[in-house]
Amino acid sequence: MNTLELKPGDKIGVFFYDDRRGTKATIEEVDNISPTGIVTLKSGTRYTSKGKEIGALGDPTYLCTVEKAQSVIDKAAQRQQQNEEEYKAYLTSPEGRRDKAAALAVQAAIKVLNQYGWYADVEGHMDVMEAEIEQIIKKYLSEHEPTS
Known about the structure:
This protein has helices at about 65-90, 95-115, 125-145; strands spanning about 10-20, 20-35, 40, 45, 60-65. A five-stranded antiparallel beta sheet has the order 4-3-2-1-5. β2 and β3 (about 40) form a beta hairpin. The model has no long low-confidence stretch (mean pLDDT about 90). The protein is elongated and about 70 Å long. It is α+β, with helices and mostly antiparallel strands.
């Protein structure tokens, strides 16, 4: 990518990653271009003439075409929609309903204990008790069918 061809106000893709973590890219606007090709975006992020982020903490981002960024954004949206559909299907399954009911029951029990003065303690006894309550409730739910 030749950054010297860009002009202030142009749209440019910013590529983050496309790997096991998922996919992420954005489309940003160019604010300034130096004579040496250093690009500054409206967000204040600066990129070298080769498109690599300057002063990145951790993994640097890279400039890319708007088309590539849009395809990565679409891929991320598709993956998110698929995950939401899988989660909704899980919640409607018997296992999902049991897990959700158990989690809400444990949450309610801990909330009531906290409301009446038994707070999470330093030694972690409340965490152990929370796990034990969850096991008891899950055992009960696995042995009995819902009434409705």
